[in-house]
Design goal:
134 residues; mainly alpha; 49% helix; 0% strand; binds zinc ion
Length: 134
């Protein structure tokens, strides 16, 4: 797996949306709703190599999904806090933000993996020396 080909960006994003390992696409990233596995059960990729690696991707993905629609709503003067539609929109936004936390984090994990494979360090420093036993 050390010399596995670099996956395409679309493949990595799709795997992230499905909360699957960015390298093999089979191992689950999350063991429960908000608890991650340390590494992939299939290929052994360590998911959180460095806790600080994901913040740029999280900022970009969060802004794209949630802040930009709010800006568009204000720009096109759709903002009216006294309508039912506005309350529904805010409810959907808050609910969507909570529900999509694992999906967004998995996408960010995939983007980090993809960027490091394409421009950064080798895949081998993210793989444990021995394959996982469990
Ligand atoms: Zn994997």
């Amino acid at each position: 797996m050390m010399n596995s080909p670099i996956p395409k960006l679309g493949t990595v994003l799709w795997r992230g949306l499905r909360r699957r390992c960015p390298r093999c696409g089979q191992g689950a990233i999350y063991r429960s709703f908000l608890r991650m596995h340390d590494h992939c059960a299939v290929c052994g990729l360590k998911f959180m190599h460095d806790q600080g690696d994901l913040w740029v991707y999280i900022i970009i993905v969060d802004r794209a999904l949630f802040i930009l629609p709010l800006i568009a709503m204000l720009y096109f003067r759709l903002y009216n806090p006294y309508t039912v539609w506005f309350a529904l929109f805010i409810g959907l936004l808050v609910g969507g933000m909570f529900y999509t936390v694992p999906h967004r984090n998995s996408i960010c994990l995939g983007l980090d993996h993809w960027a490091h494979r394409k421009w950064g360090r080798n895949d081998s420093d993210r793989t444990p020396a021995a394959p996982p036993e469990s």
